[in-house]
Amino acid sequence: MWSIRSSSRWTPLFRKVEHGGRLSEAEALDLWCNADLHTLGRLADLARERKVGNRASYIVNRYINYSNYCILSCRFCSFARKKRDGNGFELTLEEIVARAREALALGVTELHIVGGLHPSLPFQYYTDMLRALKALSPQLHLKCFTAIEVLHLAWLARKSVADTLLALREAGLDSLTGGGAEIFDPRVRQAIARGKESAEEWLEVHRIWHRMGGRSTCTMLYGHVEEAEHRVDHLRRLRALQDETGGFVGFIPLPYQPDNNDLPVHHPPTAHDTLRTMALSRLYLDNFDHITAYWVGLGPKLAQLALHYGADDLHGTIVEEHIFHMAGARSPQHMPEWQLVQLIRESGRVPVRRNSFYEPILEWKASDLPGPAEHSVPAAAEPAQSP
After folding, report:
1. Would you list which residues are annotated within the binding site for S-adenosyl-L-methionine?
2. Binding-site residue positions for [4Fe-4S] cluster
3. How far is CA 180 from CA 101, 149, 173, 329, in A?
4. Which of 77, 158, 215, 293 fits a disulfide with 303 by CB distance 3.0 to 4.6 angstroms?
5. Does 3.20.20.70 match the CATH number of domain 48-358?
């Protein structure tokens, strides 16, 4: 067990973390602005170990973006296109089903599906999509739509948000994605995503979904025009909703990608900033069990390092990712399962394949490693015990 010098100014916060206490906004901001990275990492690693032990997880999943046509014009977004643009795309239901069928053949357990706010697709397109995907396999988990997409679909269907979510769930929706949270502060939101849903609307969509018994993830986009206090305020609002509903299964901090958009940033997120953000997220979000280091945005090696700064999850195999790569991400499009297991094992953690709710499916024995096939399940793998 690591201990901090009794003379250190951080001793009271260390004791609080050690005993499972809750950080105030002022304490979190003080740590964020003034603590050295080594101290933050050790504190966050202690908090992580208290939550999940020595395990680190990943999921075998596939991303599908059904379209990038969008009626919004968020300054930070490199993904969205207008109908007049020459490089937009829109998948038919048959094309989506074909991608899902290929993914199932590779052992995928989750489809992560989001898109732009399409100007003309009817509500039935989305419910038909969910039903068609569920027909392929009832066990396939459909994690779909951001909060702003749900609001857009409610407008299309001329239904309340609750009735829209009910219709989507009846069609096959299993959980909501956490995208679109960006930064909750209204001035920052106005600067980067004018016309997008407010923080209150984002939170209300997830609140309604949680009250219906649904689960979701949540995110924060950092490293653009926001300040440290805006990040802490963002985390405060997520922590408050988690206190209220308990419906978030994990938090995913997302580093801003600066290319090919209308939001110039002279100093995009560095590795140092990313690790500090990961550590503070773990320390402040004491009612979250899981913090994900999104390797697509961080790159595999930095995501691996983040496992020592509070993160306990590397996300998934992905297969095909557009949003971050259209903004300049240089990470691979796909991470085969054996590489995820290897990254986790090299970090000193025990690799665990999980489901969409971060529940363990299997724990890899020390002597086992998936082969360099796209997806492989060893006969010797032992089922994981609940953490």
Report:
1. 76, 182
2. 70, 74, 77
3. 28, 9, 18, 18
4. 293
5. yes
